[in-house]
Design a protein that fits this description.
Order of helices and strands: HEHHEHHHHEEHH
Shape: globular
Number of strands: 4
Strand content: under 5%
Radius of gyration: 19 Å
Distance between the termini: 5 Å
Structural class: mainly alpha
Helix content: 55-70%
Number of helices: 9
Strand order of the largest sheet: 1-3
């Protein structure tokens, strides 16, 4: 934010996030309802593609604000090495690996306990599943730029890092809390993952790692494991995660999906502690100053 000619403050920052998100999502929402006949309950390949365009529009709107209202380069929202993924390859790999490991544990606990079954891979779906990874890369990165990037910067320069973590977590949870079948565990996990990713981004002084985590987390749960993600069920997946009849929601997450389970709470809680420790160590060692990258 030090490069911004006109800094965005905390309250205006929250407003900008919501306006960019709503304006970006409005066209695909209208198109999606038209495609689905007015009431989509399942996310088809086409609908996933349509909503990907919406997230790209959201990102474009924020980029315009950063460039023309604040007077700085878009890369300064959290990509200090530039917008080329190769500039932070190790962070991308680490983010993807952590997400994959957490998803594997979530599925394994449920299958091993008999709370759910996992179908054999449908290899004929591999190509569309891989294509949809690009869509989740856009979606996940957009949410990270909005919250862990732009909003953390907008809040931190005036209210401090801890306030920035709290504000972005609340906004992130609110944006996802509008989905159906939201439980206390689901809300708690939304807040916990936002805290984890917030400190993770601060520790790495950038967003590459958290963007990779977010993309693989959503893609892995939805299009690889075939589970429900934030109450959204996709039709294109490599396998199909099916909770057993009468299974405990603490394991399966109920209608919200695995990320609303108590198992996810434990994994994300551990991740949040690790991220906090990593940030504090880097800040105390002088390799990071505790502020979001600018």
């Amino acid at each position: 934010m030090l490069l911004a000619a006109n800094r965005t403050g905390p309250l205006l920052g929250v407003l900008v996030v919501f306006v960019c998100f709503l304006l970006g999502q409005l066209p695909p929402s209208v198109i999606g309802l038209a495609i689905a006949g007015g009431g989509a309950t399942r996310m088809t390949f086409v609908l996933q593609a349509v909503f990907t365009v919406g997230f790209a529009c959201t990102l474009g709107l924020l980029a315009l604000w950063v460039r023309y209202r604040e007077g700085r380069r878009f890369a300064t929202v959290g990509f200090p090495g530039g917008l080329r993924p190769g500039a932070a390859g190790s962070q991308v790999a680490r983010g993807a690996a952590v997400a994959a490991a957490m998803i594997a544990l979530l599925v394994l606990v449920n299958v091993a306990s008999g709370a759910a079954t996992l179908s054999a891979p449908a290899w004929g779906s591999l190509v569309p599943v891989l294509i949809l990874l690009a869509g989740f890369a856009v979606q996940g990165s957009t949410e990270e730029v909005l919250t862990r990037g732009f909003l953390v910067q907008a809040v931190a320069w005036r209210w401090g890092v801890w306030a920035a973590i709290v504000v972005q977590a609340m906004v992130f949870a609110f944006l996802h809390g509008a989905n159906g079948d939201v439980s206390l565990f689901a809300v708690a996990n939304l807040l916990i993952v936002a805290v984890m990713l917030g400190f993770w981004a601060l520790a790495e002084r950038g967003l590459w790692g958290v963007c990779a985590f977010h993309a693989v987390w959503n893609w892995g749960l939805a299009n690889v494991a075939g589970g429900t993600v934030s109450n959204i069920e996709v039709t294109t997946s490599l396998t199909r995660f099916s909770p057993a009849e009468g299974a405990n929601d603490l394991l399966t997450g109920g209608g919200f999906g695995l990320e609303g389970s108590a198992v996810a709470t434990a994994l994300l809680g551990i991740g949040a502690v690790v991220a906090l420790v990593a940030w504090r160590r880097r800040a105390s060692s002088g390799t990071a100053d505790g502020r979001p990258a600018a």
